[in-house]
Amino acid sequence: MKHVEVGPEGAHLGYVELEGRGDVPPLVYLHGLGSCSPIYFARSAAEPVLAGRRVLMIDFLGFGMSDRPLSFGYTLVDHADAIARGLDRLGVAGADVIGHSMGGGVATLLADRRPDLVGRLVLAEPSLHPSPRPFVEPYTEDAFVEHGFALELSEVGTTWAATMRLADPVAMYRSEHALGADMPVLDGVLRALAMPRAVVEGDRSGWLRDDPDLRAAGIPVYVVTDAGHTMMLDNPTGFAHAVAQALAGMEACVA
């Protein structure tokens, strides 16, 4: 585990780096709500179809192995800007960015706000629209920290809880609210981006492959078999191949 300072309060992003070739863009992985990038992505990143490239698996502030600054807002824009500061400090530009769920929304905003940092964008069932947040909506922030977070951990299932318990309760509360009614609608932002883009979904989900707006924008959808929303855990080999196919398809489009 490595760390890079991004603030506020001298806060650091935690990340795992796999060394690789310097003649191709690095792969940057961004996790979903309550997740942890190394835990979710390490297995697929090591697949032969993706191996050999420099890889950065980054945890958002408040999650995984990153710091938990209380003064941080934890909105999607806040997360995107913190990732941008981290990539700047690491000397990364033109990366292939893979974002899952909430991380897909953050990656979309990162690409929009700092297109110099994102060469190609692969989104795994990204959060692009506001959605109900039943675990946080009944609570004030203090009440969620006091007992709402423990209730959420008890109800989300073993796999998700394994990484969610690493999250700071304040970060969970604010990040969940940022995915609720106040979330900006990002599908139009995604369609307007200039860099090559692709979407990946699990075959048990099935809500993106027939999306007419994605099709109209020329954004292909790649399907991971035997997988649901957590496709990189359900079928890491299939997820790696879908990401590799998406990147290869975008190379062909650019060429």
Automatic annotation (TrEMBL):
It holds the Pfam family Abhydrolase_1. GO terms for molecular function: catalytic activity. SUPFAM superfamilies: alpha/beta-Hydrolases. Residues 25-178 form the AB hydrolase-1 domain. PANTHER family: HYDROLASE ALPHA/BETA FOLD FAMILY, PIMELOYL-[ACYL-CARRIER PROTEIN] METHYL ESTER ESTERASE. This is Pimeloyl-ACP methyl ester carboxylesterase.
